[in-house]
Amino acid sequence: MKYIKFLWILILSLPLMVMARDVPAFDGFTIIGESVKYYKTVSILNDSLVTASVLPELSSFTTEITKEEYDSVDLHDLYHLNGEGYIETNYKSLRTVMYKDGTTFRYFVDLTWKNIPKVRSYDIIAIGHYSTVKPAGLLYLENSYCRTNGTCTTINTHAEVNGDHGHAAIFMLPTIEITSLYQSLYFDAEKSSSTTVKNQTAVGDYAHATKEITQNNAMKLSVNTAGIVHDKSVEDYYDTIAPAVVNWSGSW
User: Fold this and answer.
1) Residue 185 CA neighbour count, 13 Å, CB half
2) Shortest CA distance to 116 belongs to which of 70, 42, 34, 177?
3) pTM, whole model, 2 decimals?
4) How far, in Å, CA of 204 to CA of 201, rounded?
5) Residue 118: in which H helix or E strand, if any?
6) DSSP codes, 147-175
7) Which of 13, 50, 131, 150 is deepest in the core (most CB within 10 A)?
8) Which helix (H) or strand (E) holds 134?
């Protein structure tokens, strides 16, 4: 009984967040495509605060939901115990945007958390694309959070996995008590050759670690137009969501 009482104290103290960000504006760039998806993830966690009846591993299942369901979520009914263990429900929104400034294209993806996940380890944000394009420069990551005292921090530190069909940033979620959490990734695209490009795709994806994992193991992945593809040795460490995809056709 003391475990359950302590757990409810922990749950009531967990920071909750309701925050929606506008589509970022970049000087000179106009938006030529946008895709937004909303998700609900239910996980069974192996938590040391819970009795030994908890499952030895984590089970996680994600469904895509409507914006109306996402907006109407009761953030005070996200954690509970049942006969199998400690249940956590997370809600998050993924957005992919394609921008254009003259002959320059920018691929952008961001992830907004509606509530703060309990497990915080190495997460992944990525953009897949056709091999006819490549980054013209650096990948820009924003890993932002706010504390309970109102101070906010943005961290750009990350590791990268790069390939002909996509790029990923691997980063550590903050483990301190926080009230908001947000990540974004973007890069400017250039043609891989002098051949005219008639079609482009920007495939935004995100993978949340539902168990603690090392950075080296988190980097065992590739990225393509299907999104993030984990090595089989680590795929059970992450939840899976459907990517947000933006397509473009024309002549470039």
Assistant:
1) 26
2) 177
3) 0.87
4) 10
5) none
6) ETTS-EEEE---EEEEETTEEEEEEEPP-
7) 50
8) strand 133-135
* Number of CB atoms found within 10 A of residue 16's CB: 13
Alpha carbon of residue 74 to chain centroid: 21
CA dihedral 158, 161, 163, 165 (to 10 degrees): -70
Q: 188: which 2 tokens?
A: 């400017």
Question: What residue has token string 């899976």?
Answer: 240
Q: What does the alpha-carbon distance between residue 95 and residue 37 come to, in Å, rounded to a whole number?
A: 6
Distance CA 158, CA 123 (A): 10
Confidence of residue 32 (pLDDT cuts 50, 70, 90): very high
Q: pLDDT tens-digit profile of 176-233?
A: 999 999 999 999 999 999 999 999 999 999 999 989 999 999 999 999 999 999 999 9
